[in-house]
Specification:
The structure holds two protein chains of two kinds. Chain A is mainly beta. Helix content of chain A is 7%, strand content 56%. Chain A is built from three helices and 23 strands. In chain A, the strands form four sheets. In chain A, strands 1-2-3-6-7-8-9-12-13-16-17-18-19-21-22-23 form a 16-stranded antiparallel barrel. Chain A has a three-stranded mixed sheet with strand order 15-14-20, with no helix packed on it. Chain B is 44% helix and 0% strand. Classes of the chains: A mainly beta, B mainly alpha. The interface between A and B is large, with 95 and 51 residues.
Chain lengths: 433, 75
Amino acid sequence: MQLKQSTQLKSLLTTATCALLGSTTTQANELENWQFDTALMVYSEVDRVSAAEAIIAGERTYDNDQVLNLKLTLDALTGASANGAVAQPHVQTFTRPSGKGQYQADANTTPLDDTFKDTRVQLTGQWTQPLSDGYTWSVGGNFSKEFDYMSLSGNTNIAKDFNKKNTTVSAGIALAFDQIKPKGGIPDPLTPMIISDLISGYDDEGEDDDDGINPSSIASSDNKTTVDLLFGVTQVINRRMLVQMNYSFSQVDGYMTDPYKILSVLDINGISQEYRYEKRPDSRQKHAFYLQTKYHFEHSIIDASYRFMTDDWGINSHTVDLRYRIMLAGDHYIEPHLRFYKQAAADFYQPFLNQGTALPEFASADYRIGEMDTYTLGIKYGMPMKSGQKLAFRVEYYNQAPKNAGFTQPGVLAEQQIYESIDAIIAQVSYSF
Amino acid sequence: MKKSHLLKASLVMLSIILTGCSSLGVEPWERDLLAKDEMALSSAPLDAALDDHIYFSKEASSGGRSFGGGGCGCN
């Protein structure tokens, strides 16, 4: 039964893919050349964002070791997201991103914009083929679209094997063009959020479906471009161990401000007087150093990696990721996962603005570019199915703990929790056939 | 200052790896373990793609393992 369903599914996907590619190969042969991987994941934060993401990826290997990879990703997102304002001892009112309607945050709670809702479709294709003299060449593209965002990118990569294929050196480049078209338009950065019942009338429906124009808007959309360079060395150490070292450089130019984020402007007593839209620099340069190793013990494999990232926004981060796969009888396995992450705050991060002081050139109260530690604790269980298919389950717990990067909380703000920790659960099922 | 240290450290590591390469490695018939799917550097690409999307959206870092990604204005 299982086998029949799986073969039917594979057959259906193969036919669909071949039709799209205009291939005329007979189906029976074609089936054997395709491998499909699918995954369904649910991500859920306590009281905040929930997301569901589905991926279907197909890999077709041709006779001369050429490989075609195609991937379709769908995701849906809903829930509430911190808007950047700080908690206050009183109820706070904000204008919705569309400029139509308002929402409120209760006293002593982190203000959340509960209108957050989006769906995304992403298509990825990659072609890889061996060339002569140990070279491998790859080229690919990516298109992604969501309600307020569009991204288009292309990449190419060349790798060369040396030393009986024990050493591989690679270099790649990716170019991306992203366009953001936020609900309500691009707000004028660092200007006050206009909160007036005259604009809108009160709306507490928790929806923001109206395509209104926010009175603070200065444009309907903006863009950014990204150039990524990636250089890597992979080395086989011995029969049980291999190591990879990568350096990546990224140059991003254009609109990187989050149009939905604001900052509270506080008086000397810590009472909020107004809210201003955030502003981030329009250029960012990132360097990342990545080291990964895998070691095969008798009945287990350790996969360890470390990444150091530094950028010209002043963000330095360290990421350690450990996976330990324990092989059980009958090709079942269990894989505990641990991940630790630590970042320093961006130079322009500040949890609020002070009334009566000059506005900074850039400012953002987004906790995601503030000082923060996070960790992930997870476990995966995998098993083979009757005729070569594979099934796996993964459950993880993710904790984000924002930190105070040295800011004093004036007056009543001293009583408020402005670095609230966030808990999330990640659950995933994967099936390969 | 910090960046020049980083550059020096990575150059030293790179040269160690490149000079040490010729004495490291295995013969083609010793690849029984390395050839397993689970010994591939990216042995679970969909897990990696999903994780990259989560951490790219929730943290201020990206890239390193592969291209930094994008295509998401996610919160």
